[in-house]
Amino acid sequence: GFSYYCTTSEVRERTLIAVKPDGVQRRLVGQIVQRFEKRGFKLVGLKMLKAPEDLLSQHYLNLQKKAFFPQVLCYMTSGPVVVMVWEGYNVVRSSRVMVGKTNPAEADPGTVRGDFGIHVSRNVVHASDSVEGAQREIQLWHNPGRTYTTFEDQSSLGISAR
Ligand code: IDP
């Protein structure tokens, strides 16, 4: 049909966006979802889970040798994360702009980290940094064959009667 002539592969590009434990705890999930929806991107996957360390090690393969890696693991396992897949034209590059610089102190106002971030270990969101990276991360986090502790197990979320 016409789609063959009119669409480009960038339209179906996908990226992995995760609201990190501090973002979930601070009730920022809705505002973050809203930013991506307003921008015209399409939500094509979402799940909430407490990330296992082995999954995080795979996710952050390039950081494993850094001295601060234990800090990253501690931060990312401090509570559940909300992992989403968003689709749209140039979504990988646009998301990185919307999310802002890694260090919230350097992130522009108007970006997620510039508006809500506190510290590199409290920077609210993750966004894939390349199309290839996004494909790898989507496979990793949304592989249905993987066993997770999901939100159905409330004890894993730190939700208690306290
Ligand atoms: P990115 O999340 O902006 O792509 P990366 O360099 O891939 O940045 O780092 C991944 C995550 O690791 C960051 O979002 C941040 O939470 C954490 N991180 C990066 N650098 C540091 C650091 O120097 N100290 C502690 N945590 C860090």
Description:
With 162 residues, this protein is of the alpha+beta class. 37% of the residues lie in helices and 15% in strands. It contains 8 helices and 4 strands; from the N terminus they run H-E-H-H-E-H-H-E-H-H-E-H. The protein has helices at 3-6, 21-25, 29-38, 53-59, 69-76, 91-99, 112-116, 131-142; strands at 14-19, 42-49, 81-87, 125-127. A 4-stranded antiparallel sheet has the order 2-3-1-4. The termini are far apart. Inosine-5'-diphosphate binds at residues 63, 68, 71-72, 102, 120-121, 123, 126, 129.
The whole-number mean of residue pLDDT values reads 90
Can you list the strand order of the major beta sheet? Answer: 2-3-1-4
Q: What does the oligomeric state look like here? A: single chain
Helix and strand succession?
A: HEHHEHHEHHEH
For the biggest sheet, the summary is: 4 strands, antiparallel
Q: Can you count the helices?
A: 8
Q: What is the terminal-to-terminal distance?
A: 58 Å
Say how many strands there are. Answer: 4
Shape: globular
Helix content: 25-40%
- Gyration radius, to the nearest Å? 16 Å
Bound molecules: inosine-5'-diphosphate
Beta-strand percentage range? 5-15%
Structural class: alpha+beta
Q: What low-confidence regions span 5 or more consecutive residues with pLDDT below 50?
A: 156-162
Topology:
Blueprint: H1 3-6, E1 14-19, H2 21-25, H3 29-38, E2 42-49, H4 53-59, H5 69-76, E3 81-87, H6 91-99, H7 112-116, E4 125-127, H8 131-142
Antiparallel strand pairs: 1-3, 1-4, 2-3
